Amino acid sequence: MIISKRGIRIVAVSMSLVSLLSTASSLACGGDWYPEVQIDPRIRGVAEAEKTLAKGDSLAAAASVVRMIPHIESLQAQRDRDPLVTRAERVLAVAIAREDGKLRFEREVPAAVLGHWLGKSKLDRGKNLAWSVDTLRRELAAEKGDPGVMTQLGEALSKLEGGQDEARTILESLAARDLIGSPQGYRALAELRLKTGDEAGQRLAIERCESMAPRSKACAPSTPRAS
Amino acid sequence: MCTEHAARELRDHIVALKAWIWFFPLLLMSGLPGACAPRRSQQTRHERVTQAVPATHSETSSVTPVAHGNAARGRALVELFECNRCHEGTGLASVPLSKHCFACHEQIILGKFPVSSAALARFRPHVGSAREAPSLTALGARLEERWVVQYLLEPRDLRPRLTPNMPRLAMDAEQAADIAAYLTADSSTSVSLAHATGNATRGRELMEQKGCVSCHAFSGVREFPVSAPPPAGSESERAAALAPDLRFTRERFRRDRLLGFLLNPRRIKPDTRMPNFDLSQAEAADIAAYVCDAALSVQPIAPLARLPLLTRHVSFEEANRRVFSRTCHHCHTDAQASGGDGGPGNTGGFGFAARGVSFSSHASILAGYVDERGERRSLFEPLSDGTPRLVAALLARHDEARGQPRSSVRGMPLGLPPLSAEDIQLVESWVEQGKPL
Question: Do A178 and B313 touch (CB under 8 A)?
């Protein structure tokens, strides 16, 4: 089929007219042009989730993250480019560890979205805790040994099957330098010490936990670990 | 070998002899009065100097004098310590807005800093104290090099109307001498009027007439009649902000340079805010005589009276609100959250290595600092006397303000006035209670 030059011109002019006339947005109306700014709601959302976690409500913090970024587990490629994803992952990882691998907030987020985060089976709970440990290890490498992340990794390892020895090494090393970054870190250490029969050490760790979080339940004994 | 040894000894002796020939006249001259030191034998003194008192707060200095520095090394050190982040007149290029101590603050206060309005509102309460720093233009044309060395090592509050922002930087005496040599290298605009002698009593009268103390404080002398302060927002008010306490002038200035400065301030320092009072040479000499020779009373600063630990509960929220976020956060913050570089106390700057200290959250404070070996250590680690490091730093700032810096602990907040006894009590109590959330 041969298309004449005139035909090409007509098609080109028509397409231009169509594209101009069919602009849905009328930002140019009224004489002033203004840019359409899209604010990423995750910026505030992740910051709020971090605050909620710091206040001790790990379940609410995790729910907030999953609601905002339900596909967070699949965002591996974005992790390095988007610090928000990294921060959200850290909140979720810590919350999972503190909730023993079970994120029971079906009322807030549909169970279909939650999937294995619900931790209904032993397998799911183990998988969740393994994800938590992996995430925190990656974060620790990026943060060059930050004691806050190290404390959280210690917490997560203490809940993971086979992770207790490493957790004890990490937390004891931090405790010796007064660098445990949260009451939950001291609670995890207390439980690890008790498991090896170090009752005096357990009491000391609980005292430190209670002095750091005098009016919260953070130092109460946790539910049995996923096994 | 013996011949070589003898020849070397002979050469050494000749060098020593030459040095002696060169330095003998200097030794003789060193017995002469300094330019701003009282020359009692030459002056007709109507106002008797009752007591020769140094003008420093501590009345003594722990600084060991060092030899004249190397100006070339000094320039490199001025770059290392980033003096141009706060001061004009360093001979270095201007720094970007985000790195400038005061231009940045000014923009924040005026609401022009390129961040969201919420961030501006968050920053604004924290930047009011640091508004400007004196220009270092023509330092050599005015100031004593040895005083500059001493000031670099032990900064003190010179300008009563300005928050004392000059930090005690991590420099040794040799580095301070090199920097002083660089900054005072250009003394070509000095006006030599060393032989002019003045009448201190007339000098005081002139100071009252000219209203010098409406801008300058002159602590330690008999009180001046109260002058009206400069009108708010006026050029005079801006000038007064940088006006030094004249108590220190006798150590800072050489008299010949002081005279030249009084006669025509802008000829000596083109960017000075000091107005030209069209003084005659005799009037300038009289004022210089009073400024340099008036009797000063000793003004010791009492050591901090520490308060006992609080028995009530102190939460992180309270300590953070009253101290950490108000003071420490400025230099020790989280780069990601603040939108900046984390501050010199976190990511390094002003010659300080990156210490990784962040006061942006409870967890970040508990994460401590990175020591010289790159290892994390607690901010609450007890020192040899049992005082937690953080509390010791807050107390050390009081010692620095009294002119008695501790060599082992750098006072904090760096470049800000010491915390009140109540604030230190609060922090100490929070630490003692186990750093509760």
Answer: no
> How does the average pLDDT of chain A come out, rounded?
84
Whether residues A162 and A191 share a domain: the answer is yes
Residues B437, A213: C-beta atoms closer than 8 Å: yes
The pLDDT value recorded for residue A92 is 94
Same domain, A65 and A137: yes
Answer for the pair A76, A84: CB distance below 8 angstroms, yes or no: no
Best to test chain A binding among B309, B359, B376 (most A CBs inside 10 Å): B376
Q: Does A84 touch chain B (CB under 8 A)?
A: no
- The minimum CA-CA distance between A27 and chain B, rounded to whole Å, is 23
Contacts of A177 in chain B (CB under 8 A): 368, 376-378, 381
Q: Do B366 and A208 touch (CB under 8 A)?
A: no
Q: State the ipTM, two decimals.
A: 0.75
Q: Are residues A84 and A123 in the same domain?
A: yes
Which of the four pLDDT bands, split at 50, 70 and 90, describes residue A104? confident
Determine contact: A212 vs chain B, CB below 8 A.
yes
The tokens describing B381, both together, are: 């680690």
CA distance B204 to A2: 103
Same domain flag for A119 and A173:
no
Do residue A150 and residue A189 come from a single domain?
yes
Region B377-385 average pLDDT: 95
Whether the predicted model's global pTM rises above the 0.80 cut: no
A145 closest CB neighbour out of B376, B380, B434: B376
Average pLDDT over residues B243-260: 89
HSE of B341 in the Cβ direction (CA atoms, 13 Å)?
14
Number of domains in chain A: 2
pLDDT tens digits for range B301-340: 788 999 999 999 999 999 999 999 888 988 898 876 665 6
- Residue among A54, A147, A208 whose CB faces B362 most closely: A54
Structural domain range at position A189: 144-213
Measure CA A60 to chain center.
12
Closest-CA residue to B189 (of B284, B279, B250, B260): B260
User: C-alpha angle with apex B50: B31 to B213, nearest 5 degrees?
Assistant: 100
